[in-house]
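Student: Send me a single protein entry containing the residue sequence and its fold in token form, directly below this note:

Tutor:
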Amino acid sequence: MKLTHNRAVLLMVAVTLMWSTAGVVTRHLEQARSFEVTFWRSFFTVLSLLVILPLFQGRDVFRRMRSGGAALWISGVCWCGMFTFFMLAITLTSVANVLITMSLSPLLTALAARVFIGHRIRARTWAAIVVAGCGIAYMYGSQITQGVSLIGTLVAMFIPISGAANWTVTQQAHAKGKNVDLIPAVLIGAVLSSLLTLPLALPFAASRHDLILLAGLGLVQLAIPSALAVVCTRALKAPEVALLGLLEVIFGILLAWVGAGEVPGPKVLTGGAMVIGALVGNELIGWRRRE
């Protein structure tokens, strides 16, 4: 599938909109909770990708996975972490907390690449890391003073950590001339997440209504947009993908607000604005200098 630049931008916006539905859908579950929610979403993602992968990459995609090397499987473990920690965090804290914390992934990736690969971090990125860190500290600090449990927010911190590890492994593999196919890695991550959470999800309590919603998450919120995002990256530059990806935070908070009545507090919005502003500023300055 080949896209023009404008169509890739529009498709990436649609991808972020699909990604952002997890929070509002989760708020409408009747009986499924915590690990069971995580298991069913990952399980339905596996079923969806088993159909989507051959359509996108041909029937021999599963044979190629066997020769993907260690980087593919490490990437799969990282995807497993992102899937598992995301859904657990969504069931433990607000959608806004999770999405804003998750948006730290590009900055943590820059730090991980500096430590493990030796990439140089520019001054503007250091400034963005400091500002975003202050935003997160402000958001978390306000919750501590209000006596709000931070368990969900702390779980959410493992999402960008897993993401940073994933992209660092991918970058290192590319530097060695080995390409990591991200969609099969997503499948591996979904399989591992299903196996990991299955014992903790028993006994199942999900109603038919819950299973329909969770099947929709597996297909529409994760499997389809993940495949389409890889297609978009072939026509968009990395800063464009990073900036458009931030729409997930905005869409997700708005959908939870409108669709589930989950109103973010002013201090959460202030901290979130600092994080998003730092990320946008960093990418726009880098983009302008490269141009």
Q: What stands out?
A: The chain has a mean pLDDT of 84. The first helix runs from residue 5 to 19. The radius of gyration is 18 Å. The chain has 14 helices and no strands.
